[in-house]
Amino acid sequence: MSQSLSKLFAHIIFHIKKSSCIIRTNDTKELYAYKASCIKTSQSIPIVINGVGDHIHILCVMSKNIALAKLVEDIKRNSSRWIKTKDLYYKNFAWQGGYAGFSVSSSTYDKTKLYIQNQEDHHKKMLFKDEYVLFLREYGVDYDEKYLWVE
User: Residue 1: pLDDT above 70?
Assistant: First the structure.
């Protein structure tokens, strides 16, 4: 085969540090647009980005030229720097050190996209910590509860 081809859908989740201020609702549209530009800069394709004040969900098509850890690092580093320029409210803003990343099959693509689009409604019924652990269990990810929420 003379070329490398791929189409890898990734669902990425990460949250703010406990000591950080939450993301204000009126700043989310601009923040998500900035995150989308970071994803494009990494030669990946943003599909949907949404969340609530303390965490973010991203569905994207990953570039064949970047590892998931590097993509998330670039998104978090650049968006953290950017949001601090908004105003003094975000002076101490920071993302958590870790993240969760899940592969999304073509058969669950629409369901995942809809889930991310409806974050505000979803979190009226479920806390983020419960949601996060539910994803880890559904995907069979081994984790130690005592390290999940450490800054």
Answer: no
